[in-house]
Amino acid sequence: MTTLKMTLASIEGRHLLAIVDEYITLLDGPRDEPDPALERLSPPAYPDDLAASAEFRLSTREDGFDQRLADALEVRTGLERFEDEGGEPTTLLEISTHALDAWLRTLSGIRLVLASRLGIGRIDAHDPDDLRFGTYDWLGYRLEILVQLADQHDAR
């Protein structure tokens, strides 16, 4: 099994684990209550046809959330080593190529939730110097690293 390797500071790993846990709680919680973050995870499939979008959402939303939850649980398993407060200052995180899509979908999903909570509508709609957006930007950086690692792997 091929793995991609990414160095992660232990404190980053613990923070990421906590964020993934919160995401799991969101996905595993009530889905029938109005929540803009959950809506952001399942946007309208047909923006010009509200009836078709509603029908599509009704038939696919639960499966989509179930897949997101399964992905997040797989990522959480990869982060379990960070549950311990001690350990090395940095850790070489190994992500199997099989789990890579789950990682990409999970980090992207978390960024969508954060964007919803922070009121970010477009990618360039926030001030990078505003500290409230630090986690959002950091997750984008980690996503970029994962994509680069995947591209390097595919180029072999």
Shape: globular
Summing up helix and strand content along with how strands pair, one would put the structural category as mainly alpha
Enumerate the strands of the largest sheet in spatial order, edge to edge or round the barrel: 1-2
Q: Identify low-pLDDT runs.
A: none
Strand content: 5-15%
Helix content: 55-70%
Order of helices and strands: EHHHEHH
* Number of domain units: 1
The tally of helices reads 5
Let me know the largest β-sheet: 2 strands, antiparallel
How far apart are the first and last residues' alpha carbons, in Å?
15 Å
Count of DSSP E strands? Answer: 2
Radius of gyration: 17 Å
Mean pLDDT: 88
Description:
- There is one protein chain.
- This protein is mainly alpha-helical and 156 residues long.
- It has one domain.
- The chain is 62% helix and 9% strand.
- It is built from five helices and two strands, in the order E-H-H-H-E-H-H.
- It has helices at 10-28, 36-41, 50-79, 100-118, 134-155, and strands at 3-9, 90-96.
- It has a two-stranded antiparallel ribbon.
- Helix 3 crosses helix 4 (100-118) and helix 4 (100-118) runs antiparallel to helix 5 (134-155).
- The radius of gyration is 17 Å and the shape is globular.
- The protein starts with a strand and ends with a helix.
